[in-house]
Amino acid sequence: MLNSIKILDLSRVLAGPLATMILGDLGAAVLKVEKPRTGDDTRGWGPPFDERGESAYYLSVNRNKKSIVLDIDEERDRAFLLNLAAGADVVIDNFRSGTLERRRIVPGEVLESNSRLIWCTITGFGEDSERIGYDLVVQAESGWMSITGDPGGEPMRVGVALADIIAGKDAAIAVLAALASRGLSAAPVPASERRIHISLVESARAALINVGQNSLVTGREARRWGNQHPNLVPYQLFQAADRAIVVGVGTDRQWQSFAAAAGLDELSADPHLDTNAGRLAQRDRIVAASAEKLRSRSAAHWIERFHRARVPAGIVKSVLESLREAAASPVTGIPPSVPGTVRLPPPRLDEHGAEIRTLGWRAFA
After folding, report:
1. Which sequence positions are flagged as catalytic?
2. Tell me, what's the pLDDT at 188?
3. Nearest of 269, 263, 330 to residue 290 by alpha carbon
4. CA distance 137 to 145
5. What is the three-class DSSP state of 57?
């Protein structure tokens, strides 16, 4: 899909490398530029490390790339980097504001000299902020932690670095849109329209979606619901006889199907529960009756019944249980979620340095 597109990856850690990996999965040639000696910070984020000494964290977002080490404080490497940028279609970085400019690498000037280049910068808190944007801090300040966790417990972070992940996907989407715009335009696209800024905090705020809209409409603070849903019931975790399952009733028809499949005849016959608003008014009654009934049989029993009744339901699986259902690899990670391919394993530090210094972008031919 992106076989002719060249991506210069000046990012590290998660959001930027994820964005460039997605573009690489889609066929782009991705050149990862790393700092001397240590490379991407996540190369040291272990254990676990594999048998080659590569951290699992680094491996998770760096397939389909080649690696070169460049010291942008050195004039020769700085000039080489600018030469690579001149031949690229996209540059993605996540340096703090002013870091590149102090080294005479000015995105605006590079964009003016390359009329086809797209430059995307990912920050934690916006292009004018020098704050370090680690996912935990963004989850706290975006409102996520205040709505995550047990209602009676402390605010809780999501179990994966989801703010980074969403920002990375936002960056990939924005780059693809810019590439499409460039391809559709008969005239050169102005540099200002080829300059993209993505921030973790803005991506995280946008991801509040219906929870944020609930607060905007009511003027009330959102609260933690644990495994329940503020607008639907039953839509939560239940304990079956042997393990946990989840049930998600989203429509009135699904409610009737759920009640029938679970044998909740008294609830099924109550006309006050025929609508979502009526069910929300009697949340405690529905949850208590459902929990008692579902504890009586195994998870497999209920999942089979609910699937036949077309009621959304699933078993709470462990990570390894989930990954056994995918062609996941301890080297190249979880298969692409986009229509892409895995062509290259995550590179060792400076694995392709000599090749790139000799051939430049021709090393991807």
Report:
1. 164
2. 87
3. 263
4. 10
5. helix
